[in-house]
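Bit of a strange request maybe. I'm writing a small parser for structure token strings and I need a real example to test against, not something I typed by hand. Could someone generate the tokens for this chain?
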Amino acid sequence: MKEMTPLEELRHSAAHVLATAVLRLFPETQLDIGPPTDTGFYYDFDLDHKLTQDDLVRIEDEMRKVAKENQRFERFETSREEGEAMIRKIGQERYKLGRLADIPQGEPISFYRNGEFVDLCAGTHVNYTKKLKAFKLLSIAGAYHRGDEKNKQLQRIYGTAFPTKAELDAYMEQLEEAKKRDHRKLGRELKLFHIDEAVGQGLVLWTPKGSVIRQELQDFISDELRKQGYSQVFTPHIGKLGLYRTSGHFPYYKESQFNPVVERDALERLADEGCSCSELSNHIDEGTVDGYLLKPMNCPMHIKIFDSQPRSYRDLPVRLAEFGTVYRWEQSGELSGMTRVRGFTQDDAHIFCMEEQVGAEIRGCLDLVRIVFRTLGMNDYRVRIGLRDPDSTKYTGNPELWDKAETALRDAASSLDVPHTEEPGEAAFYGPKIDFVVKDVIGREWQLGTVQVDYNLPERFELNYVGADNKEHRPVMIHRAPFGSMERFTGVLIEHFAGNFPVWLSPEQVRVLPITDDQLDFAREIEAQLKAANIRCSIDSHADKFGAKVRRAELERIPYMFVVGKNEVAEGQVTIRSRTNKGDEGSRPVAEAVARIIEAIESRELPC
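Reply from user aminoacidic:
Good idea to test on real output. This should exercise your parser:
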């Protein structure tokens, strides 16, 4: 069992106090689980009453009463039989008996008691409830038991807790700021993307404005890839099941993938034979029926491109890059705007190299990630090294090769001069990885770029190159994606910048504002000069007052406004208003004003 930090203990204790309060108010409630999280805690409840925000107020008041009672958290252990009897005694058998069965044989069965409340729990907790001085219930959500849509949907109450009220107040302020920056809200207001039920949940429609941001990001990273010697490739959205059986993605991870598409002839034959759905599924798993899979990863196809011709050590490293769209079956309750989707495009690349080239190639990948973060002002980040768990069976391949891959990533992370941690059990099934965890401007953390070292897929696909000794050798494979996915990265950027994108990323960079219709002709001349300079712009020709035009441009987060009145027409100038200064910056000749915008774009100037 992982040891809890003091903050996790506090939040875990708050979850138990929450359950105590809920049972006092709704005695028939059945409890599932209530763990601490990175930002607070939650508890899942099964009760007939539909919880409301008013209920949260009542429950929180009851929690304060429990805290003031200064109940002691007491741990006690039982045998498995005694534990089952205890669960039945407290009337919580609906879910707790299943949780008891999850505990491996030989491990201790422990409960925690505070006041009248008893819960099956491994711990740990604070000593007394009085230590809970700063907590807040935040929201109610639906959550399927064990995260499975086939199970009953429970009611989940989220909350947070901190050691002091000052820390809680600061966090609540952060949440309020996060609501203002919510990419789903801003994406709708700024017309950047759309998700339509008729298309499907978790499938993002990029609007023209959002597509500008995506294309600029792709062009930016493509320039850097060309400098580093990458070759662009394109692969299909669908591939044969056998490809993913070889890679290991199917059937081992089929629960996170869309169902396979069975070939029509095979489907018709099985239907004629009276094959049931469950029998068809078995045929697919066993490989006796062929089919296709919406690709969950790009790597097997890049492997096939590498393997499509003989390779020499003189050719290595081979660096293949693709903006490849992949598909994952995320549960509907876990989908969230652009940051958790079912179809997403990775800025993916795979490097095939000799073992002695691994260190240099990893450093090149890390340099690329740092260029991305520096350009976008994301300078506060840490590195998380995901390692295998030696006790888990999910990892494939030779342990000695795993050791080599993990050592290479540790050495690379140490060279970055940024904080890094090691997390056993967080590796991909084929190799360890480095994840970049970025802190945005309001202090939230996002996992973005990743770099992975893989000795296993080259083995599974029997890849070879001819070495200097004229013998065949196995290459090492490096997976890397600086953005992670275009959807998630753009969603994070929307919130990071609160929609106030740098000029080079802004869908519209300049709005020309004629004060009256008398200046429209001159405004069109300015628009033509801007477009000739490849600056994205428009004219606000609405018959509104000037203040309304300014307000509209501000709401749409336009970086620059060129104001045109009768004096500007007479002098051949424009008055510049910027999004950051929100006031006139004086008049300039049109050519000079255009040059200023070009400089802001080419320098990738960050908003203040």
